[in-house]
């Protein structure tokens, strides 16, 4: 149903799995990327396969291309590297010329794995592709309209549209098409790189923390630091359930929870959000707008006042900076903020297993079919 794994004593910043889910790449709040073998059976220890050492500052983002088996990492050192596995089993790093003067914050491969995007603290997105003649990864910048750090990214399934969230309170959708020629989608005409297709600003403020396109690309969900959740739908021609904004109808959900850092579609109309509440929450998008369904982590109140063992006490000193040995344990599996959600099995059409990493050093697998059986209100549709 759910399984928790202690990966490190420090915050887990970003993670990604290879194509068959046998390997995990993770940033454990250092300048290195750790590759670990994912255990197939309960009780089996996680084994470090390799450590990718090239960055000189905190690794802020990781993504793993499932088909080409290439890893891309970005860091506060303002660099990005593409890691390619050689015939001898070693990973070869290739420096990406980002041409930025601030930290790189997030990175995502495009669906076709022929390019990737890097969000940065210098008010731009670098869209990178491989130049065959130069044998080098080169970047082109999307600078239009950004007034602050680009905090999150997600690619449209058509490989030509990119959603970008920023700490200037805007959610924007751009054309990320690198090749010349016209291309059309429900979000608009994306003939050139950097064409602004959608721009939503919410006057109450709040940094955009997470963003995710649905499997068909017609819906975009994003979360903000003021605990609001938005869904933009370009397939909805009637603004009855939201406000019209460019090509989309935007619906707002005012959450009673703490801010969500990460969001992810796990079905045609179901998405998950997770963040400072240390627990993933399921939401459904329908004709009635966005509705909260249920939390995935079923709290066990008997554990709230559980006394800690000596070992657990010292672990909590490392992970949560606390020496309280009476009531420091939360009733959730994660004991600190969740930083990121990923699909481990399935896809955005129908995910069956989702992973989460947190600032408590834990990675947790959530088995959605089992949770649907346990929680009557929960269903993935």
TrEMBL record:
<dbReference type="InterPro" id="IPR015943">
    <property type="entry name" value="WD40/YVTN_repeat-like_dom_sf"/>
</dbReference>
<comment type="function">
    <text>Functions as component of the Arp2/3 complex which is involved in regulation of actin polymerization and together with an activating nucleation-promoting factor (NPF) mediates the formation of branched actin networks.</text>
</comment>
<keyword id="KW-0853">WD repeat</keyword>
<keyword id="KW-0677">Repeat</keyword>
<keyword id="KW-0009">Actin-binding</keyword>
<keyword id="KW-0963">Cytoplasm</keyword>
<protein>
    <recommendedName>
        <fullName>Actin-related protein 2/3 complex subunit</fullName>
    </recommendedName>
</protein>
<feature type="repeat" description="WD">
    <location>
        <begin position="52"/>
        <end position="83"/>
    </location>
</feature>
<dbReference type="GO" id="GO:0005885">
    <property type="term" value="C:Arp2/3 protein complex"/>
</dbReference>
<comment type="similarity">
    <text>Belongs to the WD repeat ARPC1 family.</text>
</comment>
<dbReference type="InterPro" id="IPR036322">
    <property type="entry name" value="WD40_repeat_dom_sf"/>
</dbReference>
<dbReference type="GO" id="GO:0051015">
    <property type="term" value="F:actin filament binding"/>
</dbReference>
<dbReference type="InterPro" id="IPR001680">
    <property type="entry name" value="WD40_rpt"/>
</dbReference>
<dbReference type="Pfam" id="PF00400">
    <property type="entry name" value="WD40"/>
</dbReference>
<keyword id="KW-0206">Cytoskeleton</keyword>
<dbReference type="InterPro" id="IPR017383">
    <property type="entry name" value="ARPC1"/>
</dbReference>
<dbReference type="GO" id="GO:0034314">
    <property type="term" value="P:Arp2/3 complex-mediated actin nucleation"/>
</dbReference>
């Amino acid at each position: 149903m759910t399984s928790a794994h202690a990966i490190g004593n420090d915050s887990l910043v970003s993670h990604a799995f290879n194509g068959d889910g046998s390997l995990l790449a993770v940033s454990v709040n250092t300048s290195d990327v750790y590759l670990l073998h994912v255990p197939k059976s309960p009780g089996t220890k996680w084994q470090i396969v390799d450590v990718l050492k090239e960055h000189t500052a905190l690794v802020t983002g990781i993504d793993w291309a499932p088909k080409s088996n290439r890893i891309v990492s970005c860091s506060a050192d303002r660099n990005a590297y593409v890691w390619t596995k050689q015939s001898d089993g070693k990973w070869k790093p290739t420096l990406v010329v980002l041409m930025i003067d601030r930290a790189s914050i997030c990175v995502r491969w495009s669906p076709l794995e022929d390019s990737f995007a890097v969000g940065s603290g210098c008010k731009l997105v670098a869209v990178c592709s491989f130049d065959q003649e130069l044998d080098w990864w080169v970047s082109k910048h999307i600078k239009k309209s950004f007034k602050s750090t680009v905090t999150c990214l997600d690619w449209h399934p058509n490989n030509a549209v990119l959603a970008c969230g920023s700490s200037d309170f805007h959610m924007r959708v751009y054309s990320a098409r690198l090749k010349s020629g016209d291309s059309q989608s429900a979000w608009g005409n994306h003939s050139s790189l950097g064409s602004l297709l959608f721009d939503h600003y919410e006057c109450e403020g709040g940094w955009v923390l997470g963003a995710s396109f649905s499997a068909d690309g017609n819906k975009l969900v994003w979360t903000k630091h003021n605990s609001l959740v938005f869904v933009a739908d370009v397939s909805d021609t009637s603004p009855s359930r939201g406000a019209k904004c460019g090509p989309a109808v935007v619906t707002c959900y005012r959450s009673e929870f703490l801010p969500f850092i990460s969001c992810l579609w796990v079905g045609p109309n179901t998405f998950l959000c997770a963040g400072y509440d240390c627990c993933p929450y399921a939401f459904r998008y329908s004709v009635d707008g966005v509705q909260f369904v249920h939390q995935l982590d079923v709290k066990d109140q008997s554990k709230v006042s559980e006394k800690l063992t000596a070992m657990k006490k010292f672990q909590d000193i490392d992970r949560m900076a606390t020496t309280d040995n009476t009531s420091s344990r939360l009733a959730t599996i994660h004991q600190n903020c969740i930083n990121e959600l990923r699909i481990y099995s399935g896809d955005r059409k129908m995910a069956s297993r989702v992973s989460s990493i947190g600032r408590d050093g834990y990675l947790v697998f959530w088995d959605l079919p089992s949770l649907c059986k346990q929680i009557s209100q929960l269903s993935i549709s």
